[in-house]
Design a protein that fits this description.
It contains 8 helices and 13 strands. By secondary structure, it is an alpha+beta fold. The chain is elongated.
């Protein structure tokens, strides 16, 4: 905001670069596309300061996570690119080194080219997870993180087994499958090369603090006993990686 830029100008002792954040429709933070009066004030403040360097524009397109398909995801990206291009063109002559920095995982993974941006921050593309899989941003083979969880107990009569792997390991984030069931993770077998494809019909149906309940067909349950180690593909690997660091 212009207020933040003014306050920074008053207190800085060393050179500091700043970006102006664009709210591209995610509505978490940033300035709306029509708020050019505010961006003008920020740019003017930077221009009058020896320590405040205007680096350009930045956005996080978190609204792509709410998109229903590839076309919607890329449409959000294209609209954001047009807005950021206009903002950059407004100031490029006065600040010739400014850049446009764009971040999210779904659209950065799906786009054929990213030439409209000077910098991308594709976030979770290093690991991927079930959320990205559901959005179509990756395949199961692209997911590069799994949580190894020991089997605590097996309950054939209710088609369930209990893992030591709960909310403090996987987080509370979940997806809904085509049947409306909550999915907190898919279950895989660990092997010397990593892990298998998801076990058909097996998923984490609920989590408590340290334990997860796995729903699985009875004949598959019979293959596991307490002490066995199963893998869980997380819904949101950013949270899982942070919880287990």
């Amino acid at each position: 905001s212009a207020f933040s830029a003014t306050e920074l100008k008053k207190s800085l002792r060393n050179t500091t670069g700043i970006f102006i954040e664009l709210d591209n429709g995610y509505h978490r933070s940033g300035l709306l596309p029509e708020q050019t009066d505010e961006t003008d004030k920020i740019a003017e403040t930077c221009g009058k300061s020896d320590l405040l360097e205007f680096k350009g524009f930045l956005t996080h397109a978190g609204n792509t996570y709410d998109a229903k398909n590839r076309n919607e995801i890329l449409s959000i990206m294209d609209e954001t690119a047009r807005t950021m291009k206009k903002w950059k063109e407004r100031y490029i002559h006065r600040f010739p080194e400014i850049i446009n920095s764009y971040g999210d995982t779904p659209s950065c993974s799906l786009a054929d080219e990213l030439n409209d941006f000077d910098e991308i921050r594709p976030g979770n593309f290093v690991y991927y997870d079930l959320m990205q899989y559901q959005l179509g941003a990756c395949t199961f083979d692209d997911i590069a993180v799994v949580v190894a969880c020991p089997v605590v107990s097996v309950y054939p009569q209710r088609n369930e087994l209990i893992l030591y792997g709960g909310a403090v390991h996987l987080s509370n984030e979940h997806l809904a499958d085509n049947n409306g069931r909550k999915i907190y993770g898919y279950v895989v077998r660990l092997n010397e090369n990593g892990w298998s494809d998801p076990i058909p019909g097996a998923y984490v149906s609920s989590v408590s603090q340290e334990h997860g309940i796995i729903r699985m067909e009875t004949e598959k349950l019979a293959r596991f006993t307490p002490g066995d180690i199963l893998g869980v593909l997380p819904v949101h690997s950013c949270l899982t990686a942070n919880l287990l660091k």
